[in-house]
From TrEMBL:
Keyword set includes Disulfide bond: yes
Protein's organism: Termitidicoccus mucosus
CDD domains associated with the record: SCO
UniProt domain Thioredoxin: residue ranges: 130-297
Gene Ontology MF term list: metal ion binding
Annotated disulfide bonds: 168-174
Protein name: Thioredoxin domain-containing protein
Sorted UniProt keywords: Copper, Disulfide bond, Metal-binding
Any Pfam family matching the protein: SCO1-SenC
Length: 301
């Protein structure tokens, strides 16, 4: 199985700064701090990825997240050496700042193979997948202030667009992308001439529009330190989000409990076409700044 970054819909995340998002007590992460938290986890191994991660359909983790399916990173190759797909397991999850690790795996039994997922939005299909040079399709969304946001509004700008959702708590995933966007804010001002920097826009589009309404995104942005002059958030009708998910080839699956998805971050040029695209969370701020400079025809240091 090829390595994929899997992301999931959770109930909360350990952080220093918490923001209460709903009357039911659902929380999102603002900025992780050093305090380590340790959780006992049980679940069923559903896949082993090429990079050593284990995809596990786990039970509720009290105080951290609800039951769902996600990829866990073992603390070392020996931690899960004897674990096989469809094993029932028990293990410890350590979460510390921007890092989480699974350890002390114990196989407790076997489970049947999973059935077919209930629903999916498979943007990973090759048909309709945006590539460099392709025009971004028309869309109609709303930003964190509730103001309309369309593809036409991106014309003449340099837009870095990505996909997240506010209830995603695993440090290496959605929070990691938001941390990188936070780092991009000063990097853009430092790495580009003022005239070019003024054209840059960072845009985080939610994958969870039913929950992430404008007020939720606004609170999330404030918690993340987003400067609305450069970094905005967007939500919209499910059909609009689905169309963008498909266009950017973001795999997303919702079986009624979980939201699993892959990552795509792209640079949209002033002409409304994709200038660059990065899959997963491995891209660096320097890579994006270099791509922005190229798109803005900036030369020299």
């Amino acid at each position: 199985m090829s390595t994929r970054f899997l992301f999931f819909l959770f109930a909360g995340l350990p952080v220093c700064a918490w923001a209460l998002l709903s009357g039911s007590g659902t929380l999102f992460a603002a900025r992780e701090k050093e305090r380590e938290r340790v959780f006992d986890v049980t679940g069923i191994v559903r896949a082993r990825l090429d990079d050593g991660q284990l995809v596990i359909a786990h039970d509720e983790i009290p105080g951290y997240m609800g039951a769902m399916t996600m990829a866990f990173t073992p603390a070392g190759p020996e931690e899960a050496a004897g674990v096989a797909v469809n094993d029932r397991v028990r293990f410890r999850l350590r979460v510390n700042g921007g890092r989480s690790r699974a350890e002390a795996f114990v196989v407790t039994g076997r489970a049947a193979a999973p059935g077919k997922p209930a629903t999916s939005s498979q943007g990973g299909a090759r048909r309709g997948r945006l590539r460099e040079g392709d025009a971004v399709p028309a869309f109609s969304l709303f930003d964190e202030r509730g103001q309309p946001l369309t593809a036409e509004a991106l014309r003449g700008r340099l837009t870095i667009v990505t996909f997240i959702f506010t209830r995603c708590p695993v440090p290496e995933y959605c929070p990691a992308i938001s941390r990188k966007f936070d780092q991009l804010q000063p990097a853009v001002r430092k790495g580009l001439p003022a005239e070019s920097a003024a054209k840059v826009r960072l845009l985080s589009i939610t994958l969870d529009p039913e929950f992430d309404r404008p007020d939720i995104l606004k609170a999330y942005g404030e918690a993340m330190g987003a400067d609305p002059a450069i970094w905005n958030f967007a939500t919209g009708e499910k059909a609009e989000i689905d169309a963008l998910v498909k266009a950017f080839a973001v795999y997303r699956e919702n079986n009624g409990v979980t939201l699993d998805h892959t990552l795509a971050t792209a640079l949209i040029g002033p002409d409304g076409r994709v200038a660059d695209i990065w899959r997963g969370n491995g891209w660096t701020v320097d890579e994006v700044i270099a791509s922005l400079r190229k798109a803005a025809n900036v030369t020299g240091r």
